[in-house]
TrEMBL record:
Biased composition (Polar residues): 80-93
Major subcellular location class: mitochondrion
Protein name: Ribosomal protein/NADH dehydrogenase domain-containing protein
InterPro entries (UniProt xref): Ribosomal_mL43/mS25/NADH_DH, Ribosomal_mS25/mL61, Thioredoxin-like_sf
Region of interest called Disordered, as start-end residue ranges on this chain: 80-104
Length: 208
């Protein structure tokens, strides 16, 4: 739980952020490594600290496609009652799902591994800012996301800092224990090899 609560991506989003949509290939081939790492490591922390904001993920197997992180931002306090013209957005409307269709409402709040969660159309009082993720490192994706969204990093509390020291120490102990185990195993293998050679030469036999 500590790794979800703390670390890169632990940030509070402003009130005008209405939802987030990620679109990338599940394969690492084709420059989607950064997007996948952001999804695995940073997005869970964003969701933990912003549970009210839908965060949709559309994964597919088309590694030739671009990877995009879309941020939906509210432009007005309340949407207009009637709309005579489509809202302006930085995203091509043809690339978004039809907001008036019955299926788009079903897809709006569900992620998909099989390319079934297209980019939703923005509401009349929303605009979309897109961050291209293809061939971009996850740390740079996070930096661009924070800059564009206005997210505020959540600082570690004193208790968090103590937990971090504790878990870091545990990690060091695990590494030391593993190295000690490997040394013992290597020494045991050498002893057995020596005894086998001694037995072949007519020396002392290996104990059962």
């Amino acid at each position: 739980m500590f790794n979800v609560r703390c670390g890169p991506g632990a940030a509070k989003l402003p009130m005008n952020i209405t939802k987030i949509h990620m679109d990338f290939c599940a394969s690492l081939i084709g420059g989607h490594q950064g997007a996948k790492k952001f999804w695995r490591e940073n997005l869970p922390r964003l969701k933990y600290h912003n549970p009210q904001i839908p965060m949709l993920v559309n994964r597919h197997d088309e590694n030739s496609k671009d990877s995009a992180l879309s941020i939906f931002m509210r432009t007005t306090a309340n949407p207009p009652v009637t709309v005579d013209a489509p809202s302006s957005t930085t995203v091509n409307p043809s690339a978004t799902a039809d907001a008036s269709s019955s299926t788009s409402e079903d897809k709006l709040f569900y992620s998909s591994r099989h390319n079934m969660c297209p980019l939703p159309s923005p509401a009349p009082n929303e605009r979309i800012v897109q961050i291209q993720m293809k061939n971009v490192h996850s740390t740079e994706i996070l930096k661009r996301f924070v800059d564009e969204s206005g997210a505020k990093e959540i600082k570690l509390t004193d208790m968090d800092s103590k937990e971090q020291v504790y878990f870091d120490e545990l990690a060091k102990q695990r590494v030391m224990s593993l190295e000690a185990f490997k040394r013992r195993k290597a020494n045991k293998a050498k002893e057995r090899a020596f005894l086998r050679q001694a037995r072949k030469a007519g020396g002392p036999k290996e104990a059962a």
